[in-house]
Amino acid sequence: MTPILLLAFAALPDGLLFHAGFDKTAQAKGDPQLYSAASYKDISKAAPGLAAAPNVVHASTGGRNGSGALHFKAKNDNAVFFHAAKNVNFQAGTISFWLRLNPDKDLAPGYCDPFQLTDKAYNDSAIWVDFTKDDQPRHFRLGVFGALKSWNPSNLEPDKNPAFNNRLVVVKKPPFAANQWTHVAITHQGLGTSQGKASLYINGVLIGAAPAITETFAWEPAKTTLRLGVNYVGFLDDLMIFNRPLSPAEIKSLGR
């Protein structure tokens, strides 16, 4: 089963490259195959489907539109991903998806990244959102970082590195809940140039923009993946990738 559905929304903004609707039928746009592996260190051994991720299932009900969704039933420490090469414009774009969880009750201890775009790690040419491990309530953050040696030449630990912490967009009291879907959108442009930008939206509202992102990026598109549910517990639905930064009005339309 390939859990992709391209919905024919009349008002869907232009520039859609990829849509994973996680519904029953499969009408693909982009590279539609979902893969899993024991870990991201074993990504070369990945196989189609979710066999290597026992805590993740394709739920046929419970999705945002009343049909399917990805359900991370317990802490997921396996690799669950789509290939990015045909699904992402690395120069500019919008990433949109929905989450349903209570972070303070559902998540296991430790950092949790519902979404990552990278071919290496969270701190080395990557776009991601995460929930923090120690805060109450757990904070929700956007991180966008280029080549590790470019922005962190001394290889300082994140919690002790102003170059890391001052880059983040942080939501200290995020609105996530177990009984409602929350929309997340990330826009980016110019990454890898001296004028890189990235912004975070929640439920159609601009939360904040990262400071200027000026370092180089070292993405290898053929190895880059859309990583889902890293240490995550909860539901994820309607992952969309656009080839341009959507306007605030367009993002608000996606969140309806």
How would you describe this structure to a colleague?
The chain is mainly beta. It has a single domain, classed as Jelly Rolls (Sandwich), CATH 2.60.120. It has helices at residues 103-106, 148-151, 162-165, 248-254; strands at 16-20, 34-37, 47-48, 56-59, 69-72, 79-83, 92-100, 112-121, 124-131, 140-145, 169-171, 182-189, 197-202, 205-209, 225-230, 234-242. The longest helix has 7 residues, at 248-254. The radius of gyration is 17 Å and the shape is globular.
Characteristic key phrases:
4 helices; Jelly Rolls; 256 residues; disordered N terminus; mainly beta; eight-stranded antiparallel beta sheet
What percent strand? 35-45%
Overall average pLDDT = 91
Number of helices: 4
* Structural class designation: mainly beta
Distance between the termini: 28 Å
CATH architecture: Sandwich
How many domain modules? Answer: 1
What's the helix and strand layout?
Layout: E1 16-20, E2 34-37, E3 47-48, E4 56-59, E5 69-72, E6 79-83, E7 92-100, H1 103-106, E8 112-121, E9 124-131, E10 140-145, H2 148-151, H3 162-165, E11 169-171, E12 182-189, E13 197-202, E14 205-209, E15 225-230, E16 234-242, H4 248-254
Antiparallel strand pairs: 1-16, 2-3, 2-6, 4-5, 5-16, 6-15, 7-12, 7-16, 8-9, 8-15, 9-10, 10-11, 12-13, 13-14
Write a short abstract of this structure.
By secondary structure, the chain is mostly beta strands. The chain has a single domain (16-254), classed as Jelly Rolls.
